[in-house]
Every structure is written in C-alpha cells, then in structure tokens.
C-alpha cells in the first residue's frame, strides 16, 4: 500500500510538472566527468542505433528546407552523429560543441575534418554566428535554461533557426514553453515509436525573433 501511495504521489507530481502547475526541474543532473564515463563505457552507442533514427529524420527534413548553405552549430553534439546524417542538407560549415572531452575526442577521430569540434557547454562568441543551431536531446540537461537560450539566441543570425529534439518526460511542456518565450515557434511534431521501448520525442523548429521584436 505505501508503495502504491508513493507511485501515486510521483505520478501526480510528474503530471503537475508536465502541465506546468509545478516548476520544471531537471530530471537528470550529469557533470562533464559523468558524461566522459558514460561515453568511455560504450553505453551510449545506442544514440547511433536504428531506433534513434526517427528524431534525426525530422531534423533532417527541417534542415533540407533551408535554401542557402548554412553555418550549423550542434550543441551537445556528443560524438558528432548528426554530421553523418546531413546528406542533402545545404551546409557551409558544421561546428559541434559538447562539455564531454571524451565525446569530442571521439568526434574528432571518427568524423575527420568534415566539421570542427570544441569542448564547451555553450558557444563562445569567438565561434561567430550561425544560421541554424541544433539542440538534439540536450536541453533537459542544462541547468539555467533561460540564460542558455538567451546565449543561443545571441549566436543566431537574423532569419536563423533553432531546431530541438526533446525526449518526452515530465516537464517537457514547461521546457517547450521556456523555449517559446525566447524564440518564435515555426513547427513542432511528435515522433512516437510504436515498438518497445515506446519512446517519443518532440522535434521542433523555432525562428530567431526579429531584432526589433526583442
Ligand atoms: C543525450 S546526449 C545527445 C548527444 C547527441 N546530440 C545525440 O543526439 O546523439 C546529450 C549530450 O549533451 C551533452 N551535454 C550535457 N549537458 C550539457 C550542457 N549543459 N550543455 C551542452 N551540452 C551538454 C552531453 O555531454 C551529451 O553529449
């Protein structure tokens, strides 16, 4: 009975966070060293697996809609998997950043010189501005999301896009609301896998706000 009560409480709390009644709290808190260990263990190899392709498919569809070659920033790029999935996308330059030195080392080894990779949480202004910033399964690890979103916005060119993929989890609606407070939503779709494990991702395209509107 107490177990049932605990589960009911957790469910109520999760629903409260999901629908924005309770504040969004990061579910997973990992340091760069934790990520280094995860990457070194090989446990994260599944990011490149067939069952993760759905979210990449939508990101790819959005990216191919760009008509001019883009400078693309991949925030939380991990080992740079996105770079391998850009066929047909007009790309001028790919830049990946990730706080995990292990992931960046693997990205540099595996992806050669097709892009550049840097150990960082957020873009350094020295990297210049970008036409598209991708946050592929990373926003829910960021401690101060509004501050990070403002920094990402500052790194976007006028007419630029922020593309996000967010695993469905308690609080994701509040998280999307935080992004929509900083960027203009263009489109958003739910990619829901119907075979176990039944994961779902919300993949969204946001536009940089016109400077006059900020
Ligand atoms: C779930 S993995 C996604 C990796 C890659 N984008 C993909 O889809 O395969 C999350 C990545 O975000 C990075 N990360 C974690 N916290 C971050 C933060 N605060 N800022 C930027 N990246 C972060 C991790 O090191 C990790 O590589």
Q: Would you kindly provide a brief summary of this structure?
A:
With 214 residues, the chain is of the alpha/beta class. It has a single domain (27-213), classed as Rossmann fold (3-Layer(aba) Sandwich), CATH 3.40.50.150. It is 33% helix and 25% strand.
DSSP helix fraction: 25-40%
Which ranges are low-confidence, i.e. pLDDT below 50, for 5 or more consecutive residues? none
Classify the fold: give the CATH topology. Answer: Rossmann fold
Distance between the termini: 52 Å
The biggest sheet, with number of strands, parallel, antiparallel or mixed sense and barrel status, is: 7 strands, mixed
The assigned CATH architecture is 3-Layer(aba) Sandwich
Order of helices and strands: HHHEEHEEHEHEE
Name of the CATH first level = Alpha Beta
The 3D shape can be described as globular
What binds here, in terms of ligands, is: S-adenosylmethionine
Mean pLDDT: 93
Which strand order does the major sheet show? 3-2-1-4-5-7-6
Looking at CATH, the homologous superfamily is Vaccinia Virus protein VP39
SSE class: alpha/beta
User: Quick one: how many beta strands?
Assistant: 7
Protein name: Class I SAM-dependent methyltransferase
Keywords: Methyltransferase, S-adenosyl-L-methionine, Transferase
GO biological process, one term: methylation
InterPro entries: SAM-dependent_MTases_sf (IPR029063)
